[in-house]
Amino acid sequence: MNPNTVTHGRAGTSAIDAKGLVKRFKTGRTFIEVLKGVDFDARHGEMTMVMGPSGSGKSTLVAALSGLLKPDEGRVDALDVDDLWDHSAGRIDKFRLDNCGFIFQGFNLFPAMNATQQVMTVLKYQGVPKDEARRRAVAALEEVGLGARLNQRPDSLSGGEKQRIAIARALAKDPALLFADEPTSALDGENGQVVIRLLRRAATEHGAAVICVTHDPRLEAWADRVIHIEDGRILDDQRRTPDPNATLGSH
Ligand SMILES: Nc1ncnc2c1ncn2[C@@H]1O[C@H](COP(=O)(O)OP(=O)(O)OP(=O)(O)O)[C@@H](O)[C@H]1O
């Protein structure tokens, strides 16, 4: 395990509790309701998968939970912050910086930075001194198996390696809340498996609440819980026993 790891809340305790989330978007003269009163909770040490068809509101839900997009109605209690959306924009930004890791499909890497710098930048934003940031960045990159790629820039790395940098960047912060949106969709089976196992470990070993949006039903094998959302409503919410040794195979 990464030596910087702190274990967040006790496994199974609540990390996020959201009630009655409603989100509408204006399209022309009408509004479409994308979240129709969603209740959602996620716990420390668990991987919660959010599945559902395209346009069902998965990304909108994650954005509302993580302080990225204000819902029109409802509340989000996250970690020690009651009613996140009742706070100032600055407080919400600080909450995200301190507590949230994000892994999105497009990697969002800076083209001019090498792997170590990509990870260090986020830590420096958090106020971690440079030497400490470097040490933690290297440790996080080693944890995701990129110890031999520390000085490489994104254009000389494969898709799987880029995604692992994005994960190292998220894990180096040791976030209590880890949000992943389609983290494996751009990857082949082997790299997808590396990525999903790292997310699983963030939950099991770091105590993070991992919330993973995906279309890929094969990822369910690693989940503690699978939530199906359709047309802005939760249709199904099932607990299961994760299999950390599951295999993804190739697509
Ligand atoms: N900023 C926006 N303005 C207008 N409509 C939006 C906006 N963001 C999302 N939508 C609409 O809200 C609906 C839900 O979008 P969302 O991205 O949450 O779905 P999703 O389940 O994540 O889909 P996908 O699996 O395709 O990513 C879609 O119909 C989308 O077009």
From TrEMBL:
The UniProt entry, under Pfam families, shows:
ABC_tran
Quick one: a GO cellular component term?
plasma membrane
What residues does the ABC transporter domain cover?
16-250
Superkingdom of the source species: Bacteria
Which molecular-function annotations from GO does this UniProt entry contain? ATP binding; ATP hydrolysis activity; transmembrane transporter activity
Concerning InterPro entries, the annotation shows: AAA+_ATPase, ABC_transporter-like_ATP-bd, ABC_transporter-like_CS, ABC_transpr_LolD-like, MacB-like_ATP-bd, P-loop_NTPase
Q: What UniProt keywords apply to this chain's record, in alphabetical order? A: ATP-binding, Nucleotide-binding, Transport
* Name of the protein in question: Putative ABC transport system ATP-binding protein
